[in-house]
Amino acid sequence: MKSVLERLLRLNRGLAAQRAAIADGRLKAAEHRANIKNNYESLKETHAEVRDLEESFDEESETMVSSMNTFFDDVQTLIRTEMLETDERHERLLRSIEEAGVMPQTVA
Known about the structure:
Blueprint: H1 2-100
């Protein structure tokens, strides 16, 4: 009878140890689930921040490209205006030379 009781006590201790291990495993699993959930929430927040940055970058890029296009258009307009004014000055100079009766010397 004593050996049966000893075996039952050992089995009971073994079962208690297994229950403790299962409880510990469940606790660790719950901690892992909580970590996974926190990481997922953090990832969602980071993704939202990235989307906001992309939108901001797109807006800034559009503004920059628009400003650059305006700048280049202004430069082209200035160049064309300067060329026209230069052509007009050249024509006036040639007319005044012709009116004065002086033939321009060609450089050989």
